[in-house]
Amino acid sequence: MTLRRFAPLIFVCVGSLAQEPVFKTGVNLVRVDVEVLSGRDSVRELSAQDFVVRDQGKTVHITHCAREEAPLDLMLLFDISGSMKPAVTAVAQGSRRALSVLRPGDRVAVSVVHGEVRRISELTGDLRDVEAAIRFGVLAQRFVGATHLQEGILIASVHLSAAGRSERRRAVLLITDNEGDRTMDDEEAIDAAWKADTVVCGLVVKTGQRTPRGKKPVDKIAEKTGCEMMLADSPEEGFVDMIRRLRSRYVLYYPLPATKPGERRDVEVELSREARSRAGNPRVFARKGYIAPDGGASN
Known about the structure:
This protein is α+β, with helices and mostly antiparallel strands. It has helices at 85-93, 95-99, 127-138, 149-160, 186-195, 217-225, 235-246, 273-279; strands at 2-3, 29-38, 41-42, 51-55, 58-59, 64-67, 72-79, 107-113, 117-124, 169-176, 198-205, 229-232, 250-255, 264-271, 283-286, 289-291. The chain folds into two domains: 2-18 and 27-68 and 250-291, no CATH class; 72-246, von Willebrand factor, type A domain (Rossmann fold, 3-Layer(aba) Sandwich).
């Protein structure tokens, strides 16, 4: 949840600072991934001064603000329960167009989840390999049975965090009908995502069996980690839209307050009144908390 001395890849948001940020030795920063949407469009041109961040209810000073520049590590997690194959086939058809939104330096891994989680391909920057993993690896799976979505999110988050501290942004994109068996408490998956500094987003598709209605368990995980489960009329177009959204988020940084290792901290992010008015009262998606790291600031 924190980073240390990652100056080369951090650029400020528009008008937020006069100089490029300098990360000092021994200074830990909390990183908060934020999306601002007006309708379906990302709100651009915001600065650090346009955001208000509270840690445990106390307003903090945003030292740095970045948008789009940091490379992205993305785990595509496909629900392969019995009703999902037509939707996943449609997503595969749009995979080349969706992946074209990514930038050099971005990496993508592909996994599937039903009664277990199975890795199809590891993180790679070769988007042709990613497309092949979706078209041939995922679609070759047997689509059957119920899905353990929370477990899939937890394992995907742990996998993304395996590289340790990094300036790279991390996200899990779950393609699902948002129906599945509960195999663990939501908080376990949320904590895993917080520890991994990972945003969990969802593309919810309609299947022939039912139309997703009401709030589902995975909705809470997405909300707590800073995203949403987006219902898509067209799986192909929805996939393109979600990749574009993941590539258009802000990242805010502030000094890690005095904490105890493993402490669960609450975070609130909103826009200033002026920024809300200027942007047309948009929606803000941001993680709701983090787990204090070992070796951070102490009481």
